[in-house]
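haha ok so turns out i had the wrong file open the whole time. this is the CORRECT one, sorry everyone. sequence first:
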Amino acid sequence: IGLFVIFAIFSSYQVQKIKTHYSLKQFQPNNHPAIAQADKVRNNYLISEMSPFIIALEAIGNRRWDSDESLDLLSNFLEDIEMKDSVENVESLNSIPIAVVKEDVFSIGTLKEVAEPRNSTQNSLLSPHLISHNGKHTAILVTPYSANSQEKIELNNDIERQLTALPHDVKATLGGPSAIMARMTLLLKKELTLFTALALALTALMLFVLFKGVLAPLMCVGLVCISILMSVAAMVTLDMPFTVLSNTVPILIAITVIAMVSHSLIRLNKEIGSATLGKLELVKEVFGHLIGPHMLTAFTTAIGFGTLIPSEVPVIRGFGVSVVMSILLTCAVCL
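then structure:
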């Protein structure tokens, strides 16, 4: 018992380092020919692997994005974003280089430097990719340096703060793959807390229905807490992030604990009525008989989820590993 208490205390410190992660690559199989071909094309044409944040700005009223005033607004808005260490590149109507031939002179520069902003809607390189044909919508692509989830969350929050400072005649929307990943990562953290609280509440409710008194439910809730702490700490120690699938691990742990504890206590209660042995001897005898069935139940469940481990899809493989590890740890804690 003392050993498990020590593990639980250590686990509570490890849980603070938990990482949630969401990316499109989690759902892509490894060593697939189509993905290998896409990577080859990306390398050949020097295409960045980083997915951008996409800022869509809509001009309201008389404002148009093909005016000097609006281009200056874009320049001021992007100045702080471009200076951030986490930003690799920013593409906007005001910053992307274009080439113009005028009176036999070939010029390269930004829109304001080499061309008339009013003509941007007629430039096929700019419209409709960065500015709509009617001049009322423009897009900004912000590419981060790193795929690190925490850095994307911080950059996402910084961009959202700056969007709130735009004039009232500009309607802003933040999206793109990186923004989706950042928001999903935050959502996973909330879901982990929610699933853990739900697991504890359902455990207590089930045990209060099955048994009189509060000792059995409290004991079961305690086992669920320790099992979840140890499982999450093991995932942190092995540098395994929580994904959209592994967020269900707390529920699976709660189900495993409820099954083992309820089975054990019901069997013990049945034996007490006809037993001639003392309570301690009876408990040892009953649990001696139940160790085999409990271990068999845990191992068969773990084997079932273990069939996911050979999967070539990272999110499925990670889910299989996390569930197998959690169920075996829960079985050890309960026994």
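DSSP finds ten helices and six strands in the chain.
again sry for the mixup
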